[in-house]
Design a protein that fits this description.
Helix content is 13%, strand content 38%. The protein contains 2 helices and 12 strands, in the order E-H-E-H-E-E-E-E-E-E-E-E-E-E. The strands form 3 sheets. Strands 1, 2, 3, 4, 5, 6, 7 and 12 form an 8-stranded mixed sheet that branches. A two-stranded antiparallel sheet has the order 8-11.
Length: 163
């Protein structure tokens, strides 16, 4: 995930993650926010921020539909981890990352794409039995992509210090 080309972004200026930075990110989203996506190091920084405020992480955990377990949230929005969000190092040795807010919608948000026919894009192949176990091994493949249908569906905070 790159922040290039995003029309809605702010620069954290190598400041560490804070609640105000996340508030500013959510304020950029005119269509609403369905998820905040960040690198695992930013996720850890968010949990440390919660603990430092004396709230602990339990106060930010919510049982949300479609997740099946309590999920860490900010302002009621699920906070998700992705190792595809890159880390960079600046000339001072600071480890920086971007944090994204996303609105999912087939009408005006971020949505998945599949250009094939049949099977909704999921293909599988039986690889055979696993030696010395009562198990069968399968390989699943799913080739798809996504698109952003509105400039208001994605926003980013750039250059958040996480190390």
């Amino acid at each position: 995930m790159e922040a290039k080309g995003l029309q809605r972004s702010i620069d954290a200026g190598t400041n560490p993650l804070s609640f105000s930075i996340l508030d500013e990110l959510l304020a950029l989203m005119k269509l609403g926010v369905d998820a905040v996506v960040m690198h695992p190091r930013a996720y850890i920084a968010y949990k440390e921020l919660l603990r430092a405020e004396g709230h602990g992480t339990d106060s930010a955990m919510l049982q949300l539909k479609n997740f099946g377990k309590p999920v860490l949230t900010f302002d009621g929005v699920p906070v998700l981890q992705s190792e595809y969000v890159p880390l960079t190092t600046d000339s001072n040795g600071n480890v920086l990352t971007n944090i994204y807010a996303l609105h999912f919608s087939v009408a005006d948000g971020v949505t998945g794409l599949y250009g094939g026919t049949g099977g909704a894009g999921i293909q599988y192949m039986k690889l055979g039995e696993v030696p010395d176990k009562l198990a069968v091994r399968y390989r699943f493949e799913w080739y798809c992509g996504f698109t952003v249908l509105s400039p208001y569906a994605v926003a980013a905070v750039k250059n958040v210090k996480v190390g």
